[in-house]
Design brief:
The chain has 580 residues and is α/β, with parallel strands linked by helices. It folds into 3 domains: 278 residues, Glycosidases (TIM Barrel, Alpha-Beta Barrel), CATH 3.20.20.80; 86 residues, Immunoglobulin-like; 136 residues, Trefoil (Acidic Fibroblast Growth Factor, subunit A) (Trefoil), CATH 2.80.10.50. Helix content is 17%, strand content 32%. It has 11 helices and 33 strands. Strands 1, 2, 14, 15, 16, 17, 18, 19, 20 and 21 form a 10-stranded mixed sheet that branches. Helix 9 links the parallel strand 11 and strand 12. The longest helix has 17 residues.
């Protein structure tokens, strides 16, 4: 079987040794995955979703792009990676490298720029400081091991600042930067001890102009991060405790010391592949279900706020070499597309039946439930949402041996209860709307102030992607929009379809089409109202900053609704006429 050892040396030399390490440290090889007995549908204990029991705030899900090692993504692959529609991964995090030479700093810029345009959070990790700052030493049996000279600590902090400035000057506001990728697994790059890491954080990290990540231990080795948490000065100069999960057992996922001393800090999982890097393993089934379970434990047991894969496009990654989503990518998309940045994980019965794993998340009045069934038989699973009597349609998506994040027929929640059948060896995501915590507001017609036509949905469609068009006010249900309060903004939910108003592909361009979509929490579903002196409003999209308009200001029935630059034209004004 071909493996990563056959790849060029610059192409991540750790991979073969890591695969061996995973086997010896407790990761379960494919050949030993036990089939779970059961040929008929089993019933699980009810899974209770506690809407008011909030845990960590989710920053997102994503992957690493590294053009120097693997080549850059194509324009189409960027859309697949960071778009949120059907057939997309929905990644909201992108990790890029900090090159040791400034000449290399633009290698990943095109991907970072497009990601930033789509609202993705970009952060970066270095493998080595500039060569002029490094000294060599002998570590164990390794000669010519590398470490940062203490006299260069200040210059290294400036190096990280210069990289941050370079990206900012090119349209990418770097969210955070790491001190060092895997300082404790550095045969091919620069070693740091925990003492050195704390010293740098204490003396130099305070000058770094963006958020600081440390230590990014390769196996979530707590002896690398404990000294940071136990040193108040070092801790004050770090914003995110970062960790990798290569070979880390689930029993080592919890971090009590972080819970005790990490208030105000974030906890991110910034790199992993799981369970192996065997060629073409990204589509191996049912092995890919292990990824779904792994993410579940990372969210529930470790309470990470971010989950980031190694190479984004790779045979064992979320995107295959041909740019198509793999089975492992489908596992990630079940979380990434629907659990959006700013959502909060809420308590759920994590293991209602053997080999069934449930986690839940809330954003405003949207609740997302992800359920993994690793059994060889289907499972009847009831979800009971506490503190709500919500009823209505529940959208849902399925991945199994033959389908990838496939939308399924709508289900019905009644009085806060939903019973579903989880197919054998599958993962499902459910998106429901609930009351409590946010206002569901009143129902309005959105009337174009210049022409008097009203906003509706083409052919009264109830499908994702149904186009928003203007029409004469004939009284059909698709002309009614429920204004849902969402923090400082609103969502407009169509009374006929239950979908919300958004922008195609989260575009930020003028004349991008406005359409309806399942309420998956993306920023383009949020709108603010800017009042005009005549009582009308400009309806501004949170993601793009553009306002709701009609293509060319047309009054023709069926004209397409679009977004456009807020240029002060009265053709961009709307009246909200209350229906109920």
């Amino acid at each position: 079987m071909t493996n990563e050892q056959n790849k060029p040396v610059r192409d991540e030399p750790r991979l073969l040794s890591r695969r061996t390490m995973l086997t010896t440290m407790g990761a379960v090889p494919v050949a030993t995955i036990a089939a779970v007995a059961g040929a008929t549908e089993a019933s699980a204990a009810p899974a209770t979703i506690n809407l008011s029991a909030q845990r960590q705030t989710i920053r997102g899900f994503g992957a690493m792009a590294h053009a120097a090692w693997i080549g850059d993504l194509t324009a189409a692959q960027r859309e697949t990676a960071f778009g949120t529609g059907e057939g997309r991964l929905g990644f909201s995090l992108l990790r890029i490298p900090v090159g040791e030479n400034q000449a290399d700093w633009s290698a990943d810029l095109a991907t970072a720029q497009r990601a930033a345009e789509l609202g993705v959070t970009v952060f970066a990790s270095p493998w080595n400081p500039p060569a002029s700052m490094i000294e060599t030493f002998t570590r164990g049996g390794q000669t010519n091991a590398k470490r940062l000279r203490y006299s260069s600590y200040g210059a290294y902090a400036q190096h990280l600042n210069d990289f941050t400035t370079h990206l900012r000057n090119n349209g990418v506001n770097l969210y955070a930067i790491s001190v060092q990728n895997e300082p404790d697994y550095a045969t091919e790059w620069t070693w740091w001890t925990s003492t050195e890491m704390v010293r740098f954080l204490r003396e130099n990290a305070g000058s770094i102009s963006t958020r600081v990540i440390a230590p990014e231990s390769f196996q979530y080795v707590k002896s690398m991060s404990d000294p940071i948490l136990n040193d108040s000065t070092a801790l004050a100069n770090v914003d995110i405790i970062g960790a990798h999960l290569y070979g880390t057992s689930y029993s080592n996922f919890p971090y009590p010391l972080f819970k005790q001393k990490g208030a105000g800090k974030e906890l991110w999982m910034t790199e992993v592949y799981y369970p192996n890097s065997n060629t073409n393993s990204g589509d191996a089934w049912p092995e890919a279900l292990d990824v779904g379970e792994h993410i579940h434990h990372a969210m529930v047991d470790a309470e990470f706020q971010a989950y980031v894969w190694w190479y984004l496009r790779r045979s064992y990654g979320p995107m295959r070499e041909d740019g198509q989503i793999s089975k492992r990518g489908a596992m990630m998309a079940h979380f990434a597309r629907f659990v959006r940045p700013g959502y909060v994980r809420i308590d759920a019965t994590a293991n209602p039946a053997s080999n069934v794993y449930v986690s839940a998340y809330r954003g405003g009045d949207t609740v997302v439930i992800v359920a993994v069934n690793k059994n060889t038989s289907s499972v009847s699973q009831q979800f009971t949402l506490s503190n709500t009597s919500a009823s209505g349609s529940v959208t849902n998506w399925l991945t199994d041996g033959s389908r990838n994040v496939a939308p399924q027929g709508a289900l019905t929640m009644s009085n806060g209860s939903l019973t579903v059948t989880l197919p054998p060896r599958s993962i499902m995501t459910f998106v429901a709307n609930v009351s409590g915590g946010t206002s569901t507001g009143d129902t309005y017609k959105l009337v174009h102030a210049d022409t008097g036509v009203v906003l509706g949905v083409q052919n009264m469609s109830t499908a994702d992607g149904g186009l928003a068009v203007v029409w004469g006010d004939t009284g059909t249900a698709d002309h009614n929009w429920v204004r849902v309060t969402d923090g400082s903004a609103f969502r407009f939910r169509n009374a006929n379809s239950g979908k919300v108003l958004g922008v195609e592909n989260m575009s930020t361009a003028d004349n991008a089409r406005v359409l309806q979509w399942s309420d998956n929490g993306t920023a383009d579903h949020r709108w603010t109202l800017v009042a005009n002196s005549d009582g009308s409003y400009r309806i501004r999209n949170v993601n793009s900053g553009k306002v709701l308009a009609v293509l060319n200001g047309s009054s023709t029935w069926g004209a397409q609704a679009v977004q456009y630059t807020d240029n002060g034209s009265t053709r961009n004004n709307w009246r909200l006429v209350r229906v109920s």
